[in-house]
Amino acid sequence: MSLRKLKKKLFKSSSHHHDESGLSTRSNSASTSEIFSEDSNRNVSSDKNTEEHEEQTDVLDDFEGANNLAQPATTLVLDVCQFTASMGSTILDPVSKFFPIVGDIANILNQVIHIYDVAQHNKKICGVLLDRVTVADAAVRSLKIRRKEYISFFTKSNYVALLGFANTIKEIRKFASEISQLSKISKYLRAESIDDTFRELAKKFDDYMNVLQFAITIDSKIQSAKDSQVIKEDLGTMKNYLELIGGGITNVDNKINDVLTIISTLNENFNNSVNHQPTADDPLNINDYEFDPNSVSGSKKVHRRTRKSDRTDAAFKELSIQDDPDISVNSVSVQVTILKKLQASEGIIKFIGLCKDKDNLFLVTEWAENGSLREFYKSHPDLDPEKKISIALDIARGLNFLAAVQMLHRDLSSENILITLQKKAKIANFSFSRGTSEATRNIKANIKNVRYTAPEKLRSLADYKNQKDYREHTYDTRCEVYSFGMLLWEIWELKIPYEDDESIISIREKVIKGYREKFSPGVHPEYERLVSSSTCGAWNDDPRFRPNFTEMFLTLKKLYEIMIQSESAKNSSNIQIKEDESNIDDDCMLTIDYTSFGDMTLNEAIMKHEEITKNHEEDISVKEKIWKCFEEYAAAGDIEAKYWKGYYLYYNELKGPDELKNQRDEEAMQLFKEAADEGNIPEAQLRYGNYLVKLKKASAAEYFQKAADNGNVMAMFNIGKMYYIGIMVKKNIAEGERYLRLAACNQNKPAIELCKKVNISW
């Protein structure tokens, strides 16, 4: 097919047809101006209930009315553009309308780079996706720089194609994010769809590259073969990992444990949400425990008590929170409630709860008979290599669990690893633990933690802000990898790092200048390489070249079994822009009518809508400009704009006449369906699912499940209840419980009530 035909195909009006929902396009339908009232001076009640679009009514109690359907509490907001232009400013030349898309792609590239850098799983697939996004970024940047040479490129058809291209790149970003983290990958593993989804995205990407005349200088067959090899390797590694990891990350069938998603959700809500904080468990009663005056601990703040009911020993650690303004008793209670769910991991100390005794607050955990790792190896100086690696594996399992639920320990050291009676190592002391996405608390250096602190954090310690080598750096998983590397050295050598140095400043300067401890003769070469390799070791000064916890676990596991394997390298490709040699008529030039909504991009229109909704504003003239923006971009084929156009129609944001409600709703549902199917937008999937429930169509479950798997909380409740009770789908209690738990963890009130009613723990 010629380039001209491809471009015409992009703009060819699709003929609407009846589907199972009964939707169709009327040949004599009213115009937009007829559907919406054009009277911008229409009176609007100032006390309108702005929550009308956020209903949480139980969707499945009554199938007769769409008003019973649970609706999203928030609307979709793109995260790649800032609201940089005010409404009504000077209209830009049509060519400049391409440039916000260039900025979008550049921002997405940075996000995909970060996803790749911190990926715990499927890193090679993420790398191939990163290569493609890098190609796209280079192509559009060159197009912007050399725009005078390629003036014929700036046509309406290419604008539409570029919008679609940017949306495909956003899908790539979302896919990479989900397959790189264990708590989000389950939906792909259950459907065995990683391969298919990758190839679908790759094909869409390559098709847009061809339509836009952005040429890759590598044979597509060669690239396809390399893609297949990368997918095979990553999926093979994932399969091997799930078979070996255990430790609560997987269940007996080597499937990912649902508790990972639950903990991750609770932790995210605690870190990022003000209105949806998890509920804290009730405190323990200290009278249920007997004090042991002979209990021994490395700290005077820790003692042992025995639970009277079953004679189980527990460690009581006194918490000092009055000196920290960032911590409250309630926040500690909520954190402990979340930490209690970590008991699913065999590599993490079990949290029992909080206990108050007069003015004292105690953190109660399982008792570790052999004390800390440091105490253990001092009393066992003859540990053999097999036991050393076994201890390292225990810790690696615990760290993999924390990474899977997106939590960081932040204070790894041999004093915070406890050894049980069975000589199993468990990670403990989570006093500084926070989510991976949350800003880092300023932790002051001390002689204990400085020995394990990554060089990038040593450069950013607040104590040294006036030093020449001071650099700001957020604590992340790669900092934790460095700390684990120091622990691995200590486990092998049975002594603390830099044991002869008691100066914080001296240790800091040594590490920043590149000095690292040395292994003694006899260490296994692969163990040494894992820790201190100058190219890929945990001690690497550049965080990007450190291994992730998945790789560290697999290496230690293979070491333990005397089976070491190596990894293969990635390939990248070069790009060039091919000049459009076709003759394009003047009437093909960009013709979107920007005069109707001013100098406003789609992202800015969405953000403006969010702003006026938040502020309870009812300025119809502003909404009309937002509507015009959605309408024009939707006409250009933008899926996101189609969703928002449907939203404005369905909720009658412009106060159109009541007699046209059915017509507005029908058009809105057609737009929601397109956004749900083509754009995979969860809010559209939920709303279209609601519509199908009204029609009593069984396919509603399909759309609810898609929306739920894409993170929509109310869809989690809807599909959970459908499965649990067997409404419109085959009854599946296990699946129902899983989705209801996820909804409850996200503080969905109907889900919480139903879980309590049918005794589903969450």
UniProtKB/TrEMBL annotation:
PROSITE patterns recorded: PROTEIN_KINASE_DOM (PS50011), PROTEIN_KINASE_TYR (PS00109)
Domain Protein kinase: 289-563
Alphabetical list of Pfam families matching this protein: PK_Tyr_Ser-Thr, Sel1
Polar residues biased stretches: 22-35
Superkingdom per UniProt: Eukaryota
GO biological process, one term: cell surface receptor signaling pathway
Stretches for region Disordered: 1-57
Biased composition (Basic residues): 1-15
CDD domains: MLKL_NTD
Key word Cell wall biogenesis/degradation present: no
Classification via InterPro entries: Adaptor_Cbl_N_dom_sf (IPR036537), Kinase-like_dom_sf (IPR011009), MLKL-like_MCAfunc (IPR059179), Prot_kinase_dom (IPR000719), Sel1-like (IPR006597), Ser-Thr/Tyr_kinase_cat_dom (IPR001245), Ser/Thr_Kinases-Pseudokinases (IPR051681), TPR-like_helical_dom_sf (IPR011990)
Keywords, alphabetical: ATP-binding, Kinase, Nucleotide-binding, Transferase
Example GO molecular function: ATP binding
Protein name: Protein kinase domain-containing protein
